[in-house]
């Protein structure tokens, strides 16, 4: 029996997409997605190929097996499916912001409602993971590959002296961009370009993050 319907549903859930948002990706209707998930119909082969290409999942897996979260996110064994997450005691739960979060221009990023990935990072602070994608503004020179997952630690007063020339991300109420920190005496700025920069202030430190590391899948 084809697993395409259940896999479409799981893809939606993992990526945080409504039926309508998923349908919009492939020029379908919400009714189409509903019928696939309820196994009342199956998508045409050209639609299956589009879904497989968009999410970088082999067609055979999409059709024949029940995908795990690991396979959907394409990040090897660091990501576990829902049956084993509770056993990941030695992993950190990291909020993950992927490109699907930017499909609608008016959709605000709420870190508290982001899906979590489990990764072997150990730190007293919480981390944030972002997929480097074209939707996030970045400096002209940004030495990270498209689709690489970048991990950030929050900027605390104790690490201000380490920020100069390091990359970071600004995640405010209505703004998100990658930038590079520059310091001048006690002044610290996260700079996207000559026209867009944010000065660090203690009362807004929750908006500022420092790059901690990256994860890049080798294929």
From TrEMBL:
Family matches, as Gene3D superfamilies: lambda repressor-like DNA-binding domains (1.10.260.40)
PROSITE patterns found in the cross-reference section: HTH_CROC1
InterPro entries, per the entry: Cro/C1-type_HTH, Lambda_DNA-bd_dom_sf
Pfam families (UniProt xref): HTH_3 (PF01381)
Entry keywords, A to Z: DNA-binding
HTH cro/C1-type domain boundaries: 8-62
PANTHER family registered for this protein in UniProt: HTH-TYPE TRANSCRIPTIONAL REGULATOR XRE (PTHR46558:SF11), TRACRIPTIONAL REGULATORY PROTEIN-RELATED-RELATED (PTHR46558)
Protein name per the record: Helix-turn-helix transcriptional regulator
Source organism per UniProt: Sphingobacterium chuzhouense
């Amino acid at each position: 029996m084809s697993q395409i319907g259940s896999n479409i549903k799981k893809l939606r859930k993992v990526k945080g997409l409504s039926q309508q948002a998923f349908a919009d990706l492939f020029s379908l209707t919400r009714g189409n997605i509903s019928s696939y998930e309820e196994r009342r119909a199956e998508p045409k082969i050209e639609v299956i190929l589009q879904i497989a290409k968009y999410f970088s999942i082999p067609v055979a897996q999409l059709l024949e097996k029940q995908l795990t979260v690991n396979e959907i996110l394409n990040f090897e064994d660091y990501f576990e499916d829902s049956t084993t997450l509770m056993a990941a005691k030695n992993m950190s739960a990291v909020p993950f912001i992927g490109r699907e979060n930017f499909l609608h221009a008016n959709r605000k990023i709420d870190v508290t409602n982001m899906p979590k990935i489990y990764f072997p990072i150990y730190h007293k602070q919480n981390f944030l993971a972002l997929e480097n994608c074209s939707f996030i503004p970045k400096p002209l020179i940004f030495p990270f590959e498209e689709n690489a997952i970048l991990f950030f630690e929050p900027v605390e007063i104790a690490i201000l002296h380490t920020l100069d020339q390091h990359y970071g991300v600004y995640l405010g109420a209505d703004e998100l961009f990658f930038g590079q920190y520059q310091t001048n005496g006690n002044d610290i700025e996260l700079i996207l370009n000559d026209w867009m920069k944010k000065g660090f202030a203690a009362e807004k430190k929750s908006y500022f993050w420092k790059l901690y590391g990256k994860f890049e899948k080798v294929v």
